[in-house]
Every structure is written in C-alpha cells, then in structure tokens.
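Sample entry follows:

:::
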Amino acid sequence: MSDNIENPPKRRWGDRRDGRRVKAPGLQTIMSYLMPKRTDCEVYLSDTIDATALVAYLEKKNASHPEYKTTVFHCFLTGLARMVRERPKMNRFIQGWRMYERYEISMSFVAKRRFSDGADEALMVLVPKDTDALDDISRKIVGDVRETRKSETATGGVDAIMDTLAKLPRLPLALIVRIVRWLDFWGVNPRFLTEGDPNYTTLFCSNLGSIRCPAVYHHLNNYGTNSIMITLGTLHKEKLLMPDGTEEIRDVLDVGATLDERIADGFYFARSLRLIKHIFAHPELLDRPLGEPSDFEY
C-alpha cells in the first residue's frame, strides 16, 4: 500500500480515487449487505493507557526547547499514525457494499478557534508521510491550528462550503444533500467536497482532555469513509496494578474508540491497541520515521 496519495498505485477497475478495492472475506462481504450502514456495525472500545513513561519523555523533550511545546495529543496522533502504518487493515473502509484500503493515512480533529461557548470550530486534517516523526507531525499540527485561529470564521475548504449550504432554503438543501449522498455511495464525489472533510479520513480524533473532559464514545457517520472515531480524555493519576503484583500511582489516559467492525475482526483490533500501549510505554519510538517499523512482537 502506498502512503502518498500524490503518487498512488495505478488504478484498477473498481478502485476509487481515495482507495483501492480489496477482497473481503465472505463474512465481511455479507455483512456489508445485511448491515450497509456504518452506524449498524459500531463496536466500542474503552481502555486506560499508562502514560507515565510518556510524561517523563515529554518533560525531558520540552526542557530542551521551552519555546516550543510538544503535547500529549501530538504524541497520541503520532502513535496512532504509526499504528495504522503497521496495521493496514485499520486503514480500510466500506462504501457502496465494497471494501477499500486507502492510499494514504489521514487523521482529522476539531480545533476551537477560541475557548469560549460561542466560538466556531474548525475541521483539521493531517496527512503524515513515511518520513515524518513526532517533531514533524507536532509542528504541522501547531502550524495549522495557529493559522486557523487567525480568523474567527471559516476562510475556505469544507468549513466554508458547509456555511454556504446552510444558508439555502430547506428543500433545495435537502435535494443537494441527497445528490451528494448518492455520489458518496458510488465514490464519485467531487474532490472539493471530500478534501478537508474528517468524514473521509482514516481516523477522527477528539482531544477532550484539552477541555477537561473524560473520554467518551462518539458515533460513526454513514456519510463518507471514516471507520474509526477516537477520543482522548484528561491526563490524570490513577492507582494501577503492576505486572509484579504491586500497586503504583501512575499517569494515565482514558481512551474511547468506536470502530466499524466490518473492516477487521476483534483479534486485529485488540492487537492494534496493544501496539499503541507499547508505543506509549516506549515513547522513543515516536522519534522514528513512520516508515521505520517499531519491531513490536505481539
């Protein structure tokens, strides 16, 4: 699988612009017909991740350049990108009763323009490359968010399109949405409607810890191709049972995930979670380019 959509593999019959068609096992093929809506196939995962090693890693890292702060969320997105890079089934989606695998890894999140009740939200999309490591991804996030917060309202992209459509009367808007959903089913939506839309990304992440909220389960959407929604809660201390049977107060993060069960089985999901935990326990892996394997033994 190529991770650069600028140079995707040669398209075959049945491929989409944003993914190549892959052969699904019989069970998953039938499931896509029996349960064609993504919201019919949601599975939920909740876990607590030991972030003690990550906190120590960040303290040392940020002390070396206090003018620029790398955050837990930056590490979380980088860890997720590495997990998807090594676990390609996590980059699949079902649309139009068929299974596809994306040409690239893409992650989306929401950024508040201002931390106030009336402030607008902006939709952000990050597309990491094989050569990217934590510092590259962190700087991309900070740069994009800083640029977005220069304006109080949408200045382009999918945000501006939604603002324009929302001004239409009810019946014309309903007709346009019906047409867009039909195009979505067949995978022929215009690029300007899908670029920058979190519904067309590998992962949709929500950093609830930034607003002092716990992790929650967030529904998937039937529109688009997004198969994984993940929320990250507030970093806090909690007593954990260690492998040697002792109890320790550790820094932990609560994570909630909603996944489309048709893209892989529970065994594959569980191993993907184990890889994320391994990355948090060994945060030096975040400094490796994504294309360099973590050599994790399952």
About this structure: The domain at 19-233+261-287 is CATH 3.30.559.10 (Chloramphenicol Acetyltransferase). The longest helix spans residues 170-186. Residues 115-119 have pLDDT under 50 and may be disordered.
